[in-house]
Specification:
single chain, mainly beta, 5-stranded mixed sheet, two-stranded antiparallel sheet, 2 helices
């Protein structure tokens, strides 16, 4: 099994952080899909609630919302996740990962929906003030 890295974003604060999950903690994520809500207590962040927004598998193929199931598929796309630049009307066949988290998923992107009591993000202003007070 692959260790899963969870990228946590807080859009209101414009901050993000990462958390690595062991195999036992990652078992909770298996079978969840993009757009599902994740309870933070399952990954050790009590009080938080997250929305799964994306991810990629161990080979780097991005997860795509409209590709159902687990594993990789070759799909015909004209824009969005998995395709960088594109001309008007051009469609390209690309390999992407399905929208369901499984054993080969190595990275999951989530965003904060509900905040808990424990501080998840450090305020850069507070850390700068603490560095100045130490000098």
């Amino acid at each position: 099994m692959v260790e899963i890295t969870v990228n946590i974003a807080h859009p209101e604060k414009n901050m993000s952080t990462t958390k690595s999950l062991s195999d036992e903690e990652a078992e909770v994520l298996h079978g969840m899909q993009l757009g599902d809500e994740l309870d933070g207590s399952n990954i050790g962040l009590d009080g938080y609630s997250f929305l799964i927004t994306g991810g990629s598998d161990r080979a780097g193929f991005p997860m795509r919302q409209e590709v159902f199931g687990m594993g990789r598929q070759k799909v015909l796309i004209k824009g969005g996740v998995g395709l960088r630049k594109n001309r008007e009307g051009r469609r390209v066949r690309r390999t992407v990962s399905g929208n369901t988290i499984y054993e080969e998923t190595s990275q999951v992107n989530v965003k904060v929906v509900e905040e808990g009591d424990k501080a998840l993000f450090e305020d850069p202003e507070e850390s700068n003030e603490s560095e100045k007070s130490e000098e």
